Amino acid sequence: MHRVASTGNAANSSRPRKERRITYVFSDSNGSKHCSGINCVKVSASSVLDSSVQGGDYLFTGSRDGTLKRWEVGSDSATCCATFESHVDWVNDVVQTGNDMIVSCSSDTTLKAWKAFSSGECVRTFRQHSDYVTSLAAAKDSNILASGGLGCEVFLWDLEAALIPVSRAANDGTVEGGYEGIHSSGGSGGIVLTDRATSTNSSSFGTINTSQGYSPVPAKGHKESVYALAINDAGTVLVSGGTEKVIRVWDPRSGTKQMKLKGHTDNVRTLLLDSSGRLCISGSSDSTIRLWDLGQQRCVHSYAVHTDSVWALASPPSFSHVYSGGRDLSVYLTDLSSRESTLLCTEQQHVLQLALQDDEWLWVATPDSSLHRWPARSSLKTLQKGSSFVAGSLPYARARASLDGSAPVPLHAEPAFVIPGTPGILQHAVLNDRRHLLTKVSFEEKEKELFEMVSVPAWFTIDTRLGSISVHLDTPQCFGAEIYAVDLQVTGASEETKLNLGQQTLRGLLAHWIACRKQKASPQEADGDLLAGAGSGTAEHGLGRGAVDDGASHSPGVFPAFEFENELPPSIITEGSQGGPWRKKATELDGTEDEKELPWWCIDAVLNGKLPPREHAKCSFFLQPYEGTSLQVLTQGKLSAPRILRIQKVMNYVLDKLAVDKLDKSVDDGGSVLTSTSVHMLSQNSSGNGHTSSKSGSRVWQHQSKLQIEILCNHQVLPPVMSLATVRAYVWKKPEDLCLQYRTIPE
After folding, report:
1. What confidence score (pLDDT) does residue 490 get?
2. Do residues 430 and 705 lie in contact, with contact meaning Cβ atoms separated by under 8 Å?
3. What local confidence, expressed as pLDDT, does residue 190 receive?
4. Residue of 363, 349, 421, 348 lying closest to 40 (CA atoms)
5. CA dist 29 to 208, 422, 467, 468, 573, Å?
6. Which is nearest to 564 in space by CA: 469, 482, 644?
7. What is the DSSP letter of 586?
8. Which end of the chain is least crowded, N or C, by CB within 10 Å?
């Protein structure tokens, strides 16, 4: 196996390592829309923006498609201003910190900090969590951020400290750019930052190690997964909840646990804290909402308005009422004092998160790719007029009311405004040619219609977790399939030229990267790099530059069948050798990426034309006269040929051997090898003017001899365009070596 400039001591390890994967995600035709469910939504009012940002209110959304988007929202409009793309899995939560920064968390186990009003610039990636990161909480008046996830972990971050570049932080305790509140940590070997908002009366937390970077403070105590976090404005009180069914209260400045509140009988899924940190609202899978007084360390009220799990809460700063939604598809508005509650609306899918816009509008995020805005202020007036019911204290009260047919009617039947999304791909099927994919249709009927009897090794895997098609390429499997160039209508290609599907796909995927690399290199180096192995993946006949120059506009060195659109480039996801996974548009690669960012085997294949050895590239078979014919036996042993070899070539081989036998040419008893060279020579001796085109585009050569034969398997006549692999899979259907027979065609 070939590789480029191996680094580290992995070669000395006795355990075989799993090579890094490369994945490409097809872009949606409309990049301004989400193409999968929206997990989180946050409103950023213009009053808190910095002076350089113009316009009205802004909205940030995070989606299961792995991206975040910033929207400028008007009274009846919403414009996508930027897409933030770097996460490689679902975005689960997003918070705004300060005036110009947002932080997101993802199922890829990372947190990412972004410049909120940039075109999508990721400032820093934090890889502290060991499992999915599900929730974030940011203090409004300080730099404190909390993150929690399925790894039973809660981390407390000083964002100001966490965003300082390590190289600057190590420079005598000073930071370029004027960060405040920095002082030497004495003998601790690092730098400790004090929250500048409270630097006169609070202790600092989190350390910057000069060699390892910033380390957050762990809030130790959780024994199970964490689903919900909330923090007060000053950053002095933090609450967390999860599958332990309790609410834990922390001092986020030190990471110490203050108390534990019991009352819920199932998972705690969502939490809110008032600005002072005294009152807490919780929603649980036990279908109840609870109001807690942290000073009294007890539950003050319990509200049973939902018939299933409560997953989302939103409340104005006054904490006078609360909006709630969850698994029962319903959004309720409840007055916390009078216990009056009304059904605001009903969604088509589960409610995942709620966000209030000036207590006038309520944004609702669901597993749908569209985002709905519902009236909030008018609903509050309706609640005050008495068009409501009194929330019970026990969860079964609402469930019983629903069963009795007394469920309330929603105040609003339709949302006031919708930010449309693109429906995510929920079902897909890879067709037998391993080059086409079927989505979004009546599968059973369409699959039958498109079915083609062809056998191609599975050289990639597919998933639609992000709502789009994600194609995963792993070595050596991705180099396991070949195709004849003439089947792709490659101009100037010979009958013998084979293309490796995985290698050619990578060349098309990385065409921009290759072009940038060529521009940075000297002409001699570029030619040597980019044209090396231009014919790799072929048989005895390679393709030069002239073979693909058909006058069409396409990327240099990339066959048209493997080109990707520049207007809608795919996103590349892979893992660096010295970091975690990353995601970029293919056109954002600048040619400087090397083995630290891209898998070595990928670079080796596209630049040097080197592919790993392939197993089962050949197909062994017996070739015998058909029963009852007078044709002589041509060979006593097994033959072997490429799996993609067509039956037409076997027919030519038989005709050639029959002609050779007339000259008494001996046959090797140990078995013969059916080579493409002999078939190619035979084709050259043919007239070449009687070929026809099959469905797949291959050329069928007519032998000059008057003798005509046909090839059979299991007494079934085989079409000339069928490959050996297809015969074995669909006609032979046995584990033993394939057995083919030949006979003359009756006149």
Report:
1. 84
2. no
3. 27
4. 363
5. 44, 9, 13, 11, 19
6. 469
7. G
8. C
Given the structure tokens 């305790």, which residue do they identify?
173
Note if the bond before 476 is cis, omega within 30 degrees: yes
Give me the pLDDT at residue 187, please.
31
Residue 510: strand, helix, or coil: coil
DSSP per-residue codes, 151-197: TS-EEEEEHHHHTS-HHHHTTTT--TT--SSEEE-GGGSEEEE--GG
Percent share of the chain, pLDDT over 90: 47
DSSP notation for 30-85: -TTS--S-EEEEEEE-GGGS-TT--SSEEEEEEETTSEEEEEEE-SS-EEEEEEEE
CB 721 within 8 A of CB 700: yes
What tens digit of pLDDT does each residue of 531-568 get?
Answer: 333 343 333 222 222 333 333 334 557 888 889 988 88
Q: Report d(CA 244, CA 246) in Å as an integer.
A: 5
As a whole number of angstroms, the distance between CA 676 and CA 121 comes to: 53
Nearest alpha carbon to residue 572 among 501, 519, 513, 516:
513
The SS3 of residue 682 is helix
Whole-number Å distance between alpha carbons of 41 and 111 = 16
One-letter amino acid at 609 equals G
Which pair of structure tokens corresponds to residue 478?
């991705």
DSSP state of 21: P
pLDDT of residue 552: 37
Q: 90 is written with which tokens?
A: 């679902």
**Would the pLDDT of 296 be above 90?**
yes
State the Cα–Cα distance between residues 103 and 123, nearest whole angstrom: 10
Tokens coding 571: 């996103």
- Alpha-carbon 354 to chain mean position: 25
Strands 738-744 and 618-625: parallel
Whole-angstrom Cα distance, residue 606 to residue 445?
A: 39
Question: Do 66 and 107 form a contact (C-beta atoms < 8 A)?
Answer: no
Token pair for residue 201? Answer: 């009366």
Report which of 92, 6, 110 is spatially closest to residue 579, judged by C-alpha positions.
110
How many angstroms separate the CA atoms of 254 and 207, rounded?
A: 12
Residue 55's alpha-carbon distances to 117, 397, 418, 480, 542, in angstroms, are 12, 46, 20, 54, 58
pLDDT mean across residues, the chain: 79
Owner of token pair 């090794």: 457
**CA 290 – CA 313 distance, rounded (Å):** 11
Residue type, 461: T
- CB 722, CB 646: distance < 8 Å: yes
Give the model confidence (pLDDT) of 234-268 as tens digits.
999 999 999 999 999 999 988 899 999 999 999 99
600-607 and 511-520 helices, crossing angle to 10°: 70
